[in-house]
Specification:
mainly alpha; Transmembrane protein, putative; disordered N terminus; transmembrane helix; about 90% helix; 4 helices; transmembrane; membrane
Length: about 150
Amino acid sequence: MQNNQKMDLNQNKWFSFMIMNMKQLLHLINTKQNKNIQIQKKQILSCILSAFICMSISILFYRQFNFQFLNIEQKLQISQLFWKVKKYKQREMNQQQKQNLKIKNELNYQRKKKRKKNYKINKLKELFQISFLYQKMPQYKINKLFLLKIKFHI
């Protein structure tokens, strides 16, 4: 019995480390003090990682995560912390999807612009070649070609 209590206390210690890390994580998420977003993301990820490491150690060494020693308020606090982390991850994912969509649209716009430009260049080349041919040909052939060209375009 005493051994079981000691295990619960050790598990409670790791669990309190996890809660502490999760609270620090929420503090980082809620405050925008840090101007550098990359540093803030690294801090948030390190908090998430350390919280899950604490929980993993607790589960690994004590075979199961024993929630029996927690009161209702602590259980509620845990569920709120995990829900907020999940919400934060979802927000990050949505921002990443928006960024990817923006990049994709920009690339499509550039491709379309390039296609349009190439189309105009090809048309100019074609007109230039036709005008060059017109200069080399006798007058009666030019009239026939011109009439054929008009016939097909109309």
